[in-house]
Prior knowledge:
37% strand, alpha+beta, single chain, S-adenosylmethionine decarboxylase
Amino acid sequence: MSRPISAGYHVLLDVAGVPRSTCIDDAGLVKLLAGASERAGCTVINSVRYRFGHGSPDGCTAFVMLDESHVAVHSYADEGLLAVDVFVCGERARAKAAAIVEEIRRFLPEGRFRESTLDRFVSVEEDPVVPPVVAA
Length: 136
């Protein structure tokens, strides 16, 4: 017997043409992600940000933990690139993820976007996507 599982929706954005100043603004990016998540109806649990340096190329990571999952960005300032991860589970997952993505797109009007989506937790019992763990 299958038991229903909360649906999840995962959006991956690769964004090119992002200004260097945006790519190194870890505080601004975490504020964007947290604000977009809250306005989409998600519950922000915590956030963390880190600006690279000390021998690494310029850029940053911003991560927002949600009750519904997470939103994250990783930037490469020298190339003007952002890798964005929007993963929302539960009620209205697809609509909430779409609202977050739309706000990110509005924030980066000069960006060139490539978007990939993936439904998560779809009929896991009927169509497993991960092999079972076998005890050693």
